[in-house]
């Protein structure tokens, strides 16, 4: 490909850049030294810089992994006002990508014999007994198939008692297990019940138990005082600095703050769970299990899966607003299916000031993490990640 300056890349349309980036290729595992590193950087720069310019994104951190090699690339500013650059330690809010970690905690609790995903929800919170949650399982909560719990709590639900009253009064629109409706109160309740069953605060279970076992040394629900200098500011549509507001079950549904390095480490654990102890390895495998089909997407625990290779349009459809905001009838997989062919697993995440995305292909040892301190369109994230994965894949195939 001909040489293109950074400024020229930035003036191109995002669509053109994605096409060019996918054709760049990168060094495969067999290519060593500066040439390989330069090709990876060229691919990621070609993809990310135009998106940042078009979407006015202050800062981004991008991590890639391919056949055992990892790279992290930092762009722009974590704090515009103080002109603090993004670096390897910058903490970003990852929004609903946190759900993959909540799901992992639940799968780990099952692997340790503490509970079963088939348990009715009310078994772990007796105050729910006598209502809809007698017939709704933990699995249905974590896969958004409880019967129509909404995307967010109503505004009037602001404390524990109001939350309990809401759940007790809630009447499902659909039979449990028949429809998927993406929902924070659904997976949030799943996390809340985990903490009740295990007898510890949810934040402690994540920060003191799960994160250390996964090797996540720079990930938090509540960023401690001595790490505040690493916590990026997000930016609203009005370009005002912003961070996530407290909300009911926020920690359980969208509360993780982490770096690209740590999030890529989590992706690596998902790519290579064989290095973990048996219960945690079993937990990771459970999160990769398909429980039902909704259109061309298979719902795992936290992760959403697609046959690989796939067209960009398929990935965009599975991450569309329609998929997130509307109920969809599902086809249960009986028994639940551990993928036998090649699959891509992915998850998006957003808060008002941040946008995140992770995708990986275990069979190809490929993965990408995108973290930004602006909530930019999901289609742009998916397209950028797809271009990076395609570029990595192209060169690996050529080397074979």
In words, what does this structure look like?
The chain has helices at residues 6-11, 14-24, 33-55, 98-111, 138-142, 160-169, 184-198, 202-214, 250-254, 260-271, 278-287, 312-318, 321-325, 378-399, and strands at residues 59-66, 69-79, 84-85, 92-93, 179-180, 219-220, 234-235, 241-242, 257-258, 290-294, 297-299, 304-307, 328-329, 331-337, 343-351, 354-361, 366-372. The longest helix is centred in the first third of the chain and has 23 residues, at 33-55. The protein is α+β, with helices and mostly antiparallel strands. Helix 4 packs parallel to helix 7. The chain has 14 helices and 17 strands. The model is unreliable at 1-33 (pLDDT under 50). Strands 3-2-1-17-16-15-12-11-10-14 form a ten-stranded antiparallel sheet, sandwiched between helices. It has a three-stranded antiparallel sheet with strand order 4-9-6. Strands 5-13 form a two-stranded antiparallel sheet. The chain is globular.
Keywords:
400 residues, alpha+beta, ten-stranded antiparallel sheet, three-stranded antiparallel sheet, 40% helix, 20% strand, disordered N terminus
Roughly what is the average pLDDT, rounded to an integer?
A: 91
User: How many β-strand stretches?
Assistant: 17
> Strand order within the widest sheet?
3-2-1-17-16-15-12-11-10-14
Low-confidence stretches: 1-33
Residues in helices, as a percent range = 25-40%
Compute the gyration radius: what is it? Answer: 21 Å
């Amino acid at each position: 490909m001909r040489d293109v300056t950074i400024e020229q890349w930035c003036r191109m349309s995002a669509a053109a850049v994605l096409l060019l980036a996918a054709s760049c290729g990168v060094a495969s595992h067999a290519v060593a030294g500066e040439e390989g590193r330069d090709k990876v950087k060229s691919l990621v720069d070609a993809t990310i810089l135009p998106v940042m310019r078009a979407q006015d994104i202050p800062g981004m951190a991008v991590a890639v992994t391919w056949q055992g090699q990892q790279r992290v690339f930092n762009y722009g500013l974590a704090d515009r006002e103080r002109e603090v650059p993004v670096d390897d330690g910058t903490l970003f809010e990852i929004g609903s990508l946190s759900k993959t970690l909540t799901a992992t905690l639940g799968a780990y609790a099952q692997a340790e014999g503490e509970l079963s995903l088939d348990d009715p929800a009310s078994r772990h919170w007796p105050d729910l007994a006598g209502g809809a949650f007698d017939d709704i399982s933990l699995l249905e909560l974590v896969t958004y198939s409880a019967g129509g719990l909404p995307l967010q709590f109503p505004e009037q639900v602001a404390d524990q008692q109001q939350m309990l009253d809401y759940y007790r009064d809630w009447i499902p629109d659909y039979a449990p297990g028949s429809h998927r409706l993406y929902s924070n109160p659904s997976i949030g309740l799943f996390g809340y019940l985990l903490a009740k069953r295990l007898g510890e605060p949810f934040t402690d279970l994540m920060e003191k138990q799960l994160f250390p076992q996964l090797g996540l040394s720079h990930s938090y629900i509540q960023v401690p005082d001595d790490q505040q200098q690493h916590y990026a500011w997000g930016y609203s549509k009005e370009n005002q600095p912003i961070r996530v507001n407290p909300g009911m079950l926020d920690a359980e549904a969208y509360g993780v703050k982490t770096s690209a390095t740590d999030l890529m480490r989590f992706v690596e654990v998902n790519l290579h769970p064989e290095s973990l102890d048996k219960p945690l390895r079993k937990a990771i495998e459970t999160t990769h299990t398909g429980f039902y089909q909704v259109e061309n997407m298979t719902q795992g625990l936290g992760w959403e899966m697609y046959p690989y290779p796939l067209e960009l349009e398929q990935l965009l459809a599975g991450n569309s607003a329609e998929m997130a905001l509307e109920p969809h009838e599902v086809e249960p997989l009986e028994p639940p299916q551990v993928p036998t062919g090649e699959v891509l697993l992915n998850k998006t995440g957003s808060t008002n000031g941040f946008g995140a995305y992770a995708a990986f292909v275990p069979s190809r040892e490929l993965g990408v993490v995108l973290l930004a301190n602006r909530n930019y369109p999901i289609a742009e994230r998916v397209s950028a990640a797809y271009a990076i994965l395609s570029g990595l894949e192209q060169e690996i195939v050529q080397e074979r």
